[in-house]
Amino acid sequence: MSLVFDSSFAPHYGEAVEIAPDIKRITVNNPSPFTFFGTNSYLIGRDTLALIDPGPLDEAHHATLLHAIAGRPVSHIFVSHTHRDHSPLATVLKDELGATLVAEGPHRPARPLHTGEINLLDASGDYDFVPDIAAADNSVIAGDGWALRTIHTPGHTANHVVFGLEGTDILFSADHVMAWATSIVAPPDGSMSDYMASLDRLLERHDRVYLPGHGGAVTKPKTFVRGLKAHRKMRERAVLERVKLGDRTIAAMVKVIYRETDPRLHGAAGLSVLAHLEDLVARGKVHTEGNASIDGVYWAG
């Protein structure tokens, strides 16, 4: 199944854009190869609001959010995951607005670090974030005219969740599913086996539109998620084929598999290959000495 990305998106920095009744999107001016045009925050409600993913510590975005809130009470701040482009402003706004922080839990890796391993993603994690409510899977928190269901979707991070707006066909898919690109799955923060299982969870739902953490809406989510699954399986086959052809290192595999990818993303691509290799090693299809690692040597089983 083919996967068609949609990179058409107007960020409207400094503005709150109404994208559905009582839903406004505010995009942070923090573009990068990893964030696309920037991180999307969402305001939900009319009188008493909910805020999803306030974003990084950015003064201009902070001011734009407060302008859009316009003095109305914000009862809850929901955080999809604790990467620094999504969560740090949540703690600041909690103190300013008296809101309750809701998330799956604090930042943590998907697995314990191996002996001698360094977490290359430490700088991206918001280790200061602590939610007031650790939302259980499939739990619902209701506010003034809205209710959000938390669905645990580990993979991009161990604590990643998405939020379904009850009574609608809208899902806030954060970094798990985005229209413009695939999600980065990078150990030890992320896990490929978890990510694939989380895609299956979304296929069990009947949402008609996803509003992601970066870029524009996913308008045919079931087709797109099936495409993501097929894409990941294709990448897995490519990794396995490179190993069978004699590539022993991740660097050698990235050079071939991601030859058309922006070189600035090759570091992340290497971690994505590691995520596939962790899964392949666990399933006995690839072998390595000890645990799969970024600088490991691999051979076919």
TrEMBL record:
The keyword Oxidoreductase does not apply. Residues 38-214 form the Metallo-beta-lactamase domain. InterPro entries: LACTB2_WH, Metallo-B-lactamas, RibonucZ/Hydroxyglut_hydro, Sec-metab_biosynth-thioest, WH-like_DNA-bd_sf. This is MBL fold metallo-hydrolase. It comes from Phyllobacterium myrsinacearum. SMART domains: Lactamase_B (SM00849). Transmembrane segments: none annotated. Keywords: Hydrolase. The lineage of its organism: Bacteria, Pseudomonadati, Pseudomonadota, Alphaproteobacteria, Hyphomicrobiales. One of its GO terms (molecular function) is hydrolase activity.
